[in-house]
Amino acid sequence: MVKLTGQSPEEVRRWAARDVLHLLAHAAIEADEVRGAARGIPRNSGASSARGSSEAKTLTYRVRQRAKE
User: How far apart are CA 59 and CA 67, in angstroms?
Assistant: First the structure.
């Protein structure tokens, strides 16, 4: 997260877990789109996009409790 946002580790540690997960999921989806573009796959390719339906993705992140300090 520190590299992704450019913020200090202390700042990132104060974030809510939900915000961190949202940012991780967004970054993962963008990375998939970049990899697809590198392979020459257009973002909205396929018959399903022509019909107006969208592709759904599910990302699962497991969160463990932080160690008590």
Answer: 25
Closest CA to 64 of 1, 21, 11: 21
CA quadruple 32, 36, 41, 42: dihedral, nearest 10: 50
- 64 and 36 in contact (C-beta within 8 Å)? no
User: Of 67, 61, 68, which Cα lies nearest the Cα of 19?
Assistant: 61
32: its two tokens = 């998939």
Checking if the pLDDT of 38 tops 60, the result is yes
Condensed to tens digits (0 to 9), the pLDDT of residues 1-24 reads 777 788 888 988 888 888 888 888
